[in-house]
Specification:
Strand order of the largest sheet: 1-4-5-6-8-7-11-12
Order of helices and strands: HEEEEEHEEEEEHHEE
Radius of gyration: 20 Å
CATH class: Alpha Beta
Strand content: 25-35%
CATH topology: Trna Endonuclease, Chain: A, domain 1
Largest sheet: 8 strands, mixed
Shape: globular
Number of helices: 4
Number of strands: 12
Helix content: 10-25%
Number of domains: 1
CATH architecture: 3-Layer(aba) Sandwich
Distance between the termini: 52 Å
């Protein structure tokens, strides 16, 4: 644009200009990763786009790679896989494709807990989470559907990760079926009386 002497402008006119398009999925993933990397305690490790082979064609070098957006490892060496999504699911029910991704990631990163992370746009709410259960032959593993609001007063909230860090840092919260946060340090926990959902994260 600069080389063509164009400039971005919100006003209408008669001249043709170039449009700027951003991949919001990639932008959301990168922004969340960079902010989380700065906010995590030093005892935690964080990786972006960690890669593993999950299928290889016999007798060839052809293979398929999986790479979750973010892999966290806490001080005890336990992994949490996070996949960021720039979209709004139907309530707390993700698409089949999103759930299958976490299911595979949980298996390959030897974790019982994965997170699908979406933006939240609900007045008065900063953090909402509902946990669902995968049921397979080996063991029961969980996928938490987390929605988080990154804005405050129409601007980026520099403290938007506080409830998420609090959630990650307290296993007793991660083992609940439902967690909501309206304001910092005011966590509302709802227990759903479904015994199968009481899965120990660690």
């Amino acid at each position: 644009m600069l080389l063509l002497n164009y400039r971005p402008d919100v006003r209408g006119g008669h001249n043709h200009v170039l449009a700027i398009l951003f991949d919001m999925n990639q932008l959301w993933e990168e922004y969340f990763f960079r902010r989380l990397r700065r906010a995590l305690p030093e005892s935690w490790n964080i990786q972006s786009q960690a890669r593993k082979v999950f299928w290889a064609l016999s007798g060839t070098n052809q293979e398929k790679i999986i790479k979750p957006d973010i892999v966290l490892t806490n001080a005890e060496g336990k992994n949490i896989v996070i996949d960021t999504k720039w979209k709004t699911p139907d309530g707390f029910v993700p698409s089949d494709e999103d759930l299958k991704q976490i299911f595979v990631y949980n298996d390959h990163w030897d974790t019982k807990f994965g997170i699908l992370l979406y933006p939240l746009n609900e007045p008065g709410k900063k953090f909402k989470c509902r946990k669902g259960i995968f049921k397979n032959a080996k063991e029961i593993t969980a996928c938490a559907v987390v929605k988080i609001d990154i804005l405050e007063g129409g601007k980026l909230d520099p403290n938007f990760l506080e409830p998420f860090i609090e959630y990650l840092s307290k296993p007793e919260l991660m083992e609940k079926n439902e967690v909501e946060l309206d304001k910092p340090n005011e966590i509302s926990i709802s227990l759903v009386s479904l015994p199968v959902n009481n899965v120990s994260v660690w």
